[in-house]
């Protein structure tokens, strides 16, 4: 039996992962499940799957989790330290599906005990790519991509060598506002931004898809994971979300990965890798689809993509700053304190402030520095938002 842990088990990726694992319960021994405030779901799944431990991210929910698990023999734990302790529990395969930079430290801990880390949490590579890859190397651990585009690239690279790769193209559906006139974007509401045309995902990544911040993170994730030059990464708007990514080779060939927009494909590929096993995903009927369309992204519409290029150019702690500022700007948008287009403005001004402050961006890329920088970036977004409001 393979020992598996799922971080962010109560979320969209977490639940899809549990769906696959529950279909073959005899193959897996569940070690740790983690969640946030959804205690009843976390406890129910922990009992159903016979986990050793269930962890909520929130200290003040420990008593609730304890009572929900009473009599089950499953250990309950809460808080940051407990999340990291869950990462330290020996496991063969760990799903990293916490949303946001909060997923970084538990993931690094799982790498330190040599686990294969299935990485849905793209923030891990955006905030600390070189550090994470080095940790995996030092501890003999493996990172497998779960983001659909990166899983697609990974699959299109099987049997190939990175030296023959000329470019990587990741696709973007264009999100909720793809067909909106530019002038209407300023007034886009949280509700409007929270519905995705093709994918069913958590609220935060759905809004990030509408603003293209999700694609911006993914471009950086592509650079970090595959070690390719920023100039060799392209984004292509593809409204149908059928082609997830393409790898362009030096002989001009493009290898495209196609599939239904169902995250269980990428999760299952990482779960069974290096094998391919049956997965309960819809089979494409291309004749019925009839056609696929592609267009270049409009950078005026999506400032996040331009910011991602600047972040890749600068390197170091800039990824952590970019991500933290984006997360905090998103908090403010969800709380209706700023408007849709203000998010990119806030991120941009915080990046500029870091650039103008000596010694911050160029500090070495350590977990401590990432966390301190993350904290400061969030504080500066708050200041920016307050200033504008006042
Ligand atoms: P979600 O919001 O549905 O779930 C997030 C999970 O993280 C939940 O279990 C929640 O309880 C937990 N969580 C939230 N805040 C936390 C904190 N501060 N500390 C610890 N745990 C916390 O999110 P999701 O859509 O499943 O996305 C998870 C990750 O996977 C994100 O990084 C996202 O970008 C990435 N991803 C998601 C999809 C998708 O289809 N949903 C696709 C590609 C990549
Ligand atoms: Mg993706």
UniProtKB/TrEMBL annotation:
Signal peptide segment: none
GO biological process, one term: isopentenyl diphosphate biosynthetic process, methylerythritol 4-phosphate pathway involved in terpenoid biosynthetic process
Xref: InterPro entries: DXP_reductoisomerase (IPR003821), DXP_reductoisomerase_C (IPR013644), DXP_reductoisomerase_N (IPR013512), DXPR_C (IPR026877), DXPR_C_sf (IPR036169), NAD(P)-bd_dom_sf (IPR036291)
Domain DXP reductoisomerase C-terminal: 258-379
Pathway as given in its UniProt record: Isoprenoid biosynthesis; isopentenyl diphosphate biosynthesis via DXP pathway; isopentenyl diphosphate from 1-deoxy-D-xylulose 5-phosphate: step 1/6
Coiled coil: none
Cofactor(s) needed by this chain: Mg(2+); Mn(2+)
Binding site for 1-deoxy-D-xylulose 5-phosphate: 122, 148-149, 173, 196, 209, 214-215, 218
Binding positions (NADPH): 10-13, 36, 38, 121, 123, 202
SUPFAM superfamilies with a match to the protein in the record: 1-deoxy-D-xylulose-5-phosphate reductoisomerase, C-terminal domain, Glyceraldehyde-3-phosphate dehydrogenase-like, C-terminal domain, NAD(P)-binding Rossmann-fold domains
GO terms assigned for molecular function: 1-deoxy-D-xylulose-5-phosphate reductoisomerase activity; isomerase activity; manganese ion binding; NADPH binding
Pfam families: DXP_redisom_C, DXP_reductoisom, DXPR_C
EC number: 1.1.1.267
Reaction(s) catalysed (UniProt annotation): 2-C-methyl-D-erythritol 4-phosphate + NADP(+) = 1-deoxy-D-xylulose 5-phosphate + NADPH + H(+)
Chain ranges of the 1-deoxy-D-xylulose 5-phosphate reductoisomerase N-terminal domain: 4-129
Domain (1-deoxy-D-xylulose 5-phosphate reductoisomerase C-terminal): residue spans on this chain: 143-226
Key words, A-Z: Isomerase, Isoprene biosynthesis, Magnesium, Manganese, Metal-binding, NADP, Oxidoreductase
Binding site for Mn(2+): 147, 149, 218
Protein purpose: Catalyzes the NADPH-dependent rearrangement and reduction of 1-deoxy-D-xylulose-5-phosphate (DXP) to 2-C-methyl-D-erythritol 4-phosphate (MEP).
Protein family: Belongs to the DXR family.
Protein name from the UniProt record: 1-deoxy-D-xylulose 5-phosphate reductoisomerase
Taxonomic lineage of the native organism: Bacteria, Pseudomonadati, Pseudomonadota, Alphaproteobacteria, Rhodobacterales
């Amino acid at each position: 039996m393979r020992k598996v842990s799922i971080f962010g088990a109560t979320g969209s990726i977490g639940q899809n992962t549990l769906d696959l694992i529950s279909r073959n319960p005899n193959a897996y021994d569940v070690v740790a499940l983690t969640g946030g405030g959804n205690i009843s779901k976390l406890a129910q799944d922990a009992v159903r799957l016979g986990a050793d431990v269930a962890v909520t991210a929130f200290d003040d929910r420990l008593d609730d989790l304890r009572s929900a698990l009473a009599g089950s023999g499953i250990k309950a734990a809460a808080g940051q330290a407990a999340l990291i302790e869950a990462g330290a529990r020996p496991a063969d395969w760990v799903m990293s599906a916490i949303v946001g930079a909060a997923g970084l430290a538990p993931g690094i801990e799982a790498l330190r005990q040599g686990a294969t880390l299935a990485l849905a949490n793209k923030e891990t590579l955006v905030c600390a790519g070189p550090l994470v890859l080095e940790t995996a190397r030092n501890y003999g651990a493996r990172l497998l991509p779960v983001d659909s585009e990166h899983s697609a690239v990974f699959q299109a690279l099987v049997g190939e060598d990175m030296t023959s790769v000329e470019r990587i193209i990741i696709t973007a559906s264009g999100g909720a506002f793809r067909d909106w006139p530019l002038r209407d974007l300023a007034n886009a509401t949280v509700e409007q931004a929270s519905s995705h045309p093709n994918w069913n995902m958590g609220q935060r990544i759905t809004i990030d898809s509408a603003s293209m911040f999700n694609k911006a993170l993914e471009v950086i994730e592509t650079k970090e994971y595959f070690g390719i030059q920023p100039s060799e990464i392209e984004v292509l708007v593809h409204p149908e979300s059928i082609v997830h990514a393409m790898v362009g080779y030096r002989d001009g060939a493009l290898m495209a990965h196609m599939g239904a927009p169902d995250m269980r494909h990428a999760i299952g590929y990482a779960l069974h890798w290096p094998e391919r096993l049956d997965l309960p995903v819809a089979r494409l009927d291309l004749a019925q689809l009839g056609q696929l369309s592609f267009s270049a992204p409009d950078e005026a519409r999506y400032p996040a993509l331009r910011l991602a290029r600047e972040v890749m150019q600068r390197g170091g702690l800039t990824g952590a700053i970019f991500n933290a500022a984006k997360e905090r700007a998103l908090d403010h948008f969800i709380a209706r304190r700023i408007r849709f287009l203000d998010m990119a403005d806030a991120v941009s001004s915080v990046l500029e402030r870091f650039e103008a402050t000596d010694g911050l961006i160029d500090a070495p890329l350590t977990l401590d520095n990432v966390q301190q920088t993350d904290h400061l970036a969030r504080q500066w977004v708050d200041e920016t938002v307050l200033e504008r409001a006042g």
